[in-house]
Amino acid sequence: MQSNENILSCTEEVRVRFNETDPLGIVWHGHYIVYFEDGREAFGRQHGLTYLDIQNAGFVTPIVKSTCEHFLPLKYGETFNIVTTFVNTMSAKLIYTYELFNQEGKLVCSGETIQVFLDGDGNLCLYNPEFFQNWKDKMGLS
């Protein structure tokens, strides 16, 4: 069950580095998942939900699902924007969608990741951890 009452997103500009490209000068497909990580970290810094915040609360959030669709290539030296959007759900999950836009504003790639909460003993949390529910309340996502 998803709620659209308050949408939180973040846009981060990134430059394609040489080591991310193949011999043709285009970004190797595996790096797009790393770009999603860049987007999640920028989102966390902007909205107060960093990996350190999660870790300090005694939890980890492994990815259990990721999807990535490619539409256009990115090339060495180009800059692009990652738009990361938090998908609000009642489940004890972190769901993010991603859209990468090239310098011309064209959609290069889109995807989604789903992360679950594990407590300090590695147990799956079936309910939102208290710190996460407090964050959702603060952000108007309850």
Automatic annotation (TrEMBL):
<dbReference type="InterPro" id="IPR029069">
    <property type="entry name" value="HotDog_dom_sf"/>
</dbReference>
<dbReference type="Pfam" id="PF13279">
    <property type="entry name" value="4HBT_2"/>
</dbReference>
<comment type="similarity">
    <text>Belongs to the 4-hydroxybenzoyl-CoA thioesterase family.</text>
</comment>
<dbReference type="InterPro" id="IPR006684">
    <property type="entry name" value="YbgC/YbaW"/>
</dbReference>
<dbReference type="GO" id="GO:0047617">
    <property type="term" value="F:fatty acyl-CoA hydrolase activity"/>
</dbReference>
<dbReference type="InterPro" id="IPR008272">
    <property type="entry name" value="HB-CoA_thioesterase_AS"/>
</dbReference>
<dbReference type="InterPro" id="IPR050563">
    <property type="entry name" value="4-hydroxybenzoyl-CoA_TE"/>
</dbReference>
<protein>
    <submittedName>
        <fullName>4-hydroxybenzoyl-CoA thioesterase</fullName>
    </submittedName>
</protein>
<keyword id="KW-0378">Hydrolase</keyword>
